[in-house]
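Example record used in the benchmark description.
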Amino acid sequence: MNEPLRPNVRPANPCFSSGPCAKRPGWSVDSLADACIGRSHRAKPGKAKLAEVIDRTRAVLGVPDDYRIGIVPASDTGAVEMAMWSLLGARGIDILAWESFGQGWVTDIVKQLKLEDVRELKAGYGQLPDLGQVNGARDVVFTWNGTTSGVRVPDGDWIAADREGLTICDATSAAFAMDLPWDKLDATTYSWQKVMGGEAQHGMIILSPRAVERLESYTPPWPLPKLFRLTKAGKLIEGVFKGETINTPSMIAVEDALDGLRWAETIGGLKGLIGRSESNFDAMRAWVDATDWVDFLADEPVTRSNTSVCLKVVDPWFLEQPDDKRAAAAKQISTLLDAEGVGFDTGAYRDAPPGLRIWAGATVERSDLEALFPWLDWAYATVKADMSA
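Model output (structure tokens):
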């Protein structure tokens, strides 16, 4: 059998990881030259930088003026845990889970917080639960975009405008790439390392007035670690939402977050960011439509993520292989791409079905994706030839 023809054009930036994600176009270490290093984050310059992150975030995302925005510890995971530990327990809970991280929130609510009035609305990889089952009288916990499955909720229409419960939304692969309906979201979280390509470590939490009212009127029955405390003596700690962080932040990471927000402003803000992600996804969709060995993991087009694009192999040869051989073949595709230096970190998440996951968020250039596609075809043909020999 002839060896598959190796492509000639390589992506200028081979970083396609779903987190931490590619840096913005043109980024360099020089972008961090103004970082407030060697100073206390509580000193006037440090507090000003942190407050600037909050202010620019509000402007780019279009967050309503009466919503609070805070910088919190431990990336998106810390922000979600803070929301759940601080807000849950006052009402029954509906949890939506259709991939790894959503299932992790189920585990924490049921096994760590040990809450009993919990309904798990679940679906497998590639699908969404029945959103029509969500009860607006209950609190709802869900991911807007399932990073490990490439499946997102299509919109917020399924969330009742007159709901009595709160919505807690993990939006870490959605914020800055998808249009979030703030009137439907009460506690929204994300991390700098996703769509904006920032450095990991810190998370963001955005609270509606309804979430603030819950915080000030309800005390959970469990002890709250210091890192999760948003109230004192029954009142919101307003400083958290003005740049007075609970723990010591990395001022280099803060500067990087500011750099990303400033870049977003130069390309048209949220509209420009969403446009870049959608353009990247259009390129991926065109390639998938023209390629017979691969398809989207997400079953329904309207639920397909435009950031963490998850792919499954549908070639009959691949599907005929035993489970271990399919897993080995999928892993070998990403290994070949890595070895060639044309596509880093393209393997499916460890709990997901064997396949590929390619980040297409706003910091990725469409031209790099288009250069990657022939290499994907080459890698699959190479693996198939080697394993069929």
